[in-house]
Amino acid sequence: MVTESRSWLEIIECSNCGKTYDPDQLLTVCEACGKVLLARYDLVAAARTMTKDSLREREWNLWRYHEIMPVRDPQHRLTLGEGGTPLLAAPTMGAELGLSHLLLKDEGRNPTGSFKARGLGAAVSRARELGVQAIALPSAGNAAAAASAYLARGGMEAVVFMPQDAPEIFKAECRALGARVFLVDGLINDAGKIVRENGAARGWFDVSTLKEPYRAEGKKTMGIELAEQLGWELPDAIIYPTGGGTGIVGMWKAFDELEQMGLIGSRRPKMVVVQAAGCAPIVRAFEQGVRHADLWEGAETIAPGMRVPIAIGDYLIIDALRESEGTAIAIPDDEILSMTNRVSAAEGLHISPEVGAAFAAAGQLRETGFLREDERVVVFGTGSGLLHTDLVEEGYPVLDPNDPNVGTAIDEAYR
Ligand SMILES: *Cc1c(COP(=O)(O)O)cnc(C)c1O
Ligand SMILES: [Zn+2]
Predict the structure, then answer these.
(1) Contacts of 401 (CB under 8 A, 6+ apart)
(2) What atom of ligand 1 comes closest to residue 242's alpha carbon?
(3) How confident is the model at residue 162 (pLDDT cuts 50, 70, 90)?
(4) In whole angstroms, what is the distance from residue 98 CA to residue 90 CA?
(5) Where are the beta strands (DSSP E) in 156-236?
(6) Under 8 Å CB-to-CB from 245, ≥6 apart: which residues?
(7) 177 pLDDT more than 60
(8) Nearest-10 crossing angle of helices 314-323, 246-260
(9) What is the pLDDT of residues 75-87, one digit of tens each?
């Protein structure tokens, strides 16, 4: 079945002051108040062709939801086969944590190994459509890799800025993908400052998290897919490892769009933000009952995706938590590490530390009674463990092939 392949992008609107913008110009943040801009669509028109039936015929990539995605010309829809990630049962961990319907949305299978592919796939495609040739961004690692991939695909220039101590694989991957790589003696917000102050003069468009309207559009597809995979129902809770928060903000927005399109009802999952104890600005703000999260000083954690000390979309994340009767929880690094290794071995799925934190959160929230045993709980597996060779807890036994007693060494190693 052929459906008209168009986007019903209608307007860009400030999430804070409501000011509206022509959607076909290049935009960053609101020029009136400096806050986050969001894309709005003609959902009545979109609902005519984006139906449960028509979706069955479409390819599993970001653009299967093209009616409510921002790119108008199909030629500008870059794809590397992102999205369509499996929603897997996690039965062993479910039994251990006391959750009989525990599911893992395995985003680690996306191009470059994380869900960042969705956000950057959308943002790079749309920027390209609007005439951008070079893009700069600060990143803890995954976003830089994803941006480099889509920019290479689009024949554009990538300039990425990462903390000096970001895992080596991200630097190597960006290089391999043809990006210019800069390391910053600081954290992602320091890298962001350098991009902000130096990018425009060099003609680099800044695609920092939520500082342009389209990364969130890519990430919202996680929420649409989830609904579609559950037969157009939403789970009881979504556990999400949170840094800048685009995932939460995007999914929460997607649920409203789906409801207005008649694809789902009004029931919403409890949204749960998970952060590392060494960098938990959103958790702290949520607990204090405020809507803005101050900079977290001295941010430190083994989970790079959550080492984000300040988030421009803090109020949107916190609103989603309150509206959904969700919560926010911080997990210390030692628990993140042990849970990451435990889940990987228990389920046969090599997860990243951010995901380990989310599983640890699920366990704690079960213990406090926030989650019930029979609730359907989805943990977002935002990244692949393959990117984290630094998380091995102990060394490996090394065998000498000429040692006549090599068998003894083998037996002793795992005694
Ligand atoms: C970026 C990242 C996160 C945080 O995602 P946001 O949507 O920006 O909050 C979580 N996990 C991984 C693996 C990441 O790369
Ligand atoms: Zn505004």
Answers:
(1) none
(2) 9
(3) very high
(4) 12
(5) 157-163, 180-184, 205-206
(6) 209, 210, 273, 282, 311, 313, 314, 316, 317
(7) yes
(8) 50
(9) 999 999 999 999 9
DSSP 126-172: HHHHTT--EEEEE-SSHHHHHHHHHHHHTT-EEEEEEETTS-HHHHH
The percentage of residues in the chain with a pLDDT greater than 90, rounded to a whole number, is 95
Residue 93 is which amino acid? M
Among the listed residues 244, 217, 211, the one whose alpha carbon sits nearest the alpha carbon of residue 314: 244
**How many CB atoms lie under 10 A from the CB of residue 407?**
10
CA gyration radius for the chain?
21
What is the 246 CA–ligand 1 centroid distance (Å)? 8
- Which CA distances in Å does 28 have to 8, 196, 206, 228, 311? 20, 11, 8, 31, 15
Closest CA to 299 of 330, 315, 276, 272: 276
Specify which residues 3 forms β-bridges with: none
pLDDT value of position 2:
41
Residue 112 CB neighbours (<10 A): 27
Name the 3-class secondary structure at 11.
strand
Token pair, residue 127, equals 């920027």
The CB-side HSE value for 287 (13 A sphere, CA atoms) comes to: 12
What letters, b where the CB count within 10 A reaches 16 and e where it falls short, cover 250-286? Answer: bbbbbbebbbebebbeeebbbbbbbbbbbbbbbbebb
Separation of 16 CA from ligand 2 center, angstroms?
5
User: Residue 415 has what pLDDT?
Assistant: 82
Any residues with Cβ below 6 Å from ligand 1, and which? 114, 116, 142, 209, 241-247, 305-306, 352, 354, 382-383
| Six token digits for residue 337 | 């590490």
The answer to whether the beta carbons of residues 221 and 380 sit under 8 Å apart is: no
Query: Beta-carbon neighbour count of residue 90 at 10 Å?
Result: 25
Instruction: Describe the strand order of the beta sheet including 205-206 as a list of residue ranges.
Output: 180-184, 157-163, 134-138, 205-206
pTM (2 decimals)? 0.95
DSSP 27: -
Quick count: other Cβ atoms within 10 Å of Cβ 40? 18
Ligand 1, residue 355: give the atom nearest the CA: 11
Instruction: Supply the DSSP symbol for 279.
Output: B
Report the candidate in 233, 395, 225, 244 with the shortest Cα–Cα distance to residue 311.
244
